[in-house]
Amino acid sequence: MRYRTQIGARLRPTTRPHLVLTAAALAQFLVAFDMSVMNVALPDIQSSLGFSDADLSWVVNAYALAFGGLLLLGGRLCDVLGTRRVLLAGFAIFGLVSILGALSTAPWMLVVARAVQGVGAALIAPAGLAALSAMFPTGKQRARAFGIGAMASAGGGAIGVVLSGLLTDAVDWRLVMFSAAPFTVIAACAAFVGMPSHSGGRTGRLDTVGAALVTSGLVLLAYTVVETEDRGWTDPLVLVGFGVTAVLLGIFALVESRVAEPLVRFATLRRPRIAAANLIMCVLCAAQFSGFFFVSLYLQRGLGYSPTRTGLAFLPFCIGLVLAIVLSTKLLTRVGAKPLLVGGTALASAGLFWFSRMTTDSDFLAIVLGPSLILSIGIGLCFMPLSNIATADLPPDEVGMASGLLNTSRQIGGSIGLAALVSVAAAASARFDGPALDGLVDGYSTALLVCAGLLAVGFLLALAFPRPTALSEPTAFSEPTVFSEPTTDAAETSDDEDQILSNKPLT
Predict the structure, then answer these.
(1) What separation in angstroms does the CA of 10 have from each of 5, 6, 15, 330?
(2) pLDDT (tens digit, 9 = 90+) per residue, 242-265?
């Protein structure tokens, strides 16, 4: 026991699960928060910096391009350089640029700042998920940890909309840009103190050719999709963009099948549950991102809400989301992932269908409150199981890659879905025969109806979700060793020592 105590004393400062959880949850929160926080502030940004109507979308799209294009690279860097190093670097970039972007005096300065923020997000998103998966490998504690991570991620998008409206009306859009900086400081301190320093000492090589190909392909794909908003889907330049994207990603797949240490191990994607989780996440986020976008526009343009009132209108969504994620955390170890995904996608589809009934004379209770609660509960039931499954039962050198894949599915699905549905809304508004405002709302309604259809596809995928293997899903009887209880000799060692020592049983 004396030997155990000496080892515990030496290891005690290196791993603090509650701080790792704090850093990882804030990483997921920040990524989603910065995707949505600028939306309500866009009119004030345009008048302050002199953006043209055509260029204003780049405040959002610059972030999405960098984020979506670099996620796989960020995930692989976790495996090669270590999660701690990547997470700290991402927080530093994210926080510094949040401050510098708030000082922008010209449109190009803000667009560049948002692009660099996307680089930081592409590092912290997979690193945060990889940190959770490594610290909480199995059991109820893993379910709780991923529940908190999912709550932070899904809640970040909703809170971003609420805070954006409040800060824009009360102070200025610059405070909206700055608002992420305090969170990054807290998260970086938690990661620096709580994560083991030796997590940076990984072996392996980075597949630079594969990284260049997939990053170029995904950035070009995201850029091409963004361009469809102005050019349409059949424009020659758009078609060329999709063609070149296909070539780049095809060459990437060929390269990855031949290198010793690939950026993406396609064998991982051939695991049925991981592949299904990525597909459902892609569909879910295509519908969720678009739903947020069109409901926000409907409240401001269709019903005449102010930024503050628009932000506050999303509070019921935030509340429903939190309740659903707490519920999914408790249910995952009892009923498994499939029932949660089936019920969640069905509720989310019903909520978006209800939203699609919007008109210019609808009231808050009839067309906002009810569908907000149903949609939020449905999404909340899905997020945590998907994040859990996508990184479960993997060797340590694949966790970062798997988390990067899941975040790529989320981001690319959301970006492509939103761009496609913007075109759907514009076409529906153009066909409408009546007052301009009614036509605008009819376009939003049509797009939300398509969103409901996307989640109906997600429901079918959930019905066909593969059965778990013996270790791929936590059960109520498999507690993670990282939080094991002290042994009967606990008088000679501390709780922290037992928690750390139990990761590797002594013989």
Answers:
(1) 9, 6, 11, 35
(2) 999 999 999 988 988 888 777 777
Q: Side-chain half-sphere of 57: how many Cα atoms within 13 Å?
A: 16
Residues 60 and 99 in one domain: yes
**Per-residue pLDDT at 350:** 95
Distance CA 89, CA 112 (A): 18
Residue 198 sits in which domain range? Answer: 9-206+263-476
Q: 255 and 279: one domain?
A: no
Check whether residue 345 and residue 401 sit in a common domain.
Answer: yes
Q: Is 1 within a domain?
A: no
Mean pLDDT is highest, among 72-76, 220-224, 226-230, 283-287, for 283-287
Q: Is residue 486 included in any domain, yes or no? A: yes
Number of domains in the chain: 3
CA atoms within 13 A on the CB side of 364: 11
- Could you tell me if 440 and 302 are in contact, meaning their C-beta atoms sit under 8 angstroms apart? yes
pTM of model > 0.70: yes
Of 347, 375, 21, 321, whose CA–CA distance to 157 is shortest? 321
Q: What's the burial of 212, exposed, middle or buried (CB within 10 Å: 0-12/13-18/19+)? A: middle
Number of H helices and E strands in the chain, helices first, is: 22, 0
In a domain, 415, yes or no: yes
In a domain, residue 4? The reply is no
pLDDT digits (tens, 9 = 90+) for 437-472: 889 899 999 999 999 999 999 999 999 988 766 544
Residue 117 reports pLDDT greater than 80 = yes
